[in-house]
């Protein structure tokens, strides 16, 4: 990491989404199929699941939106906005409409 990138990373402490959006940390891309076949490093199966890191005040205060911090979700990555906040760049701001499912324990 260059000095400029270090200063940039140190400037921000949190990312808070605004409007009907959530901040999601995308799960790691898979390097192996369900059948156990290992994939080459340059091929990845895109993963569209992740954990909600932060939610906007509008989402938090809305009884109609069943999303909470730390929920595991399935989301449409097409509308996701990447956040250049961490080195691995797995953070995305996602509109609530692009969150298509929440994983709940029964």
Q: Would you summarize the structure shown here?
A:
The chain contains two helices and six strands. The protein has one domain: GroES chaperonin (10 Kd Chaperonin, Protein Cpn10, Chain O, Roll), CATH 2.30.33.
Our count of domains comes out at 1
What's the count of strands?
6
Give the fraction of residues assigned to helices: 10-25%
The succession of helices and strands, N to C, reads HEEHEEEE
Order of strands in the sheet with most strands: 4-5-1-2-3-6
Structure description:
The N and C termini lie far apart (43 Å). Helices cover 12% and strands 28% of the residues. The longest helix is centred in the first third of the chain and has 9 residues, at 3-11. Strands 4-5-1-2-3-6 form a 6-stranded antiparallel sheet. It has a single domain (14-103), classed as GroES chaperonin (10 Kd Chaperonin, Protein Cpn10, Chain O, Roll). The protein is of the alpha+beta class and 106 residues long. It is built from 2 helices and 6 strands; from the N terminus they run H-E-E-H-E-E-E-E. The model has no long low-confidence stretch (mean pLDDT 82). It has helices spanning 3-11, 57-60; strands spanning 21-26, 49-55, 72-75, 81-83, 91-95, 99-103.
Features:
106 residues, 10 Kd Chaperonin, Protein Cpn10, Chain O, six-stranded antiparallel beta sheet, alpha+beta
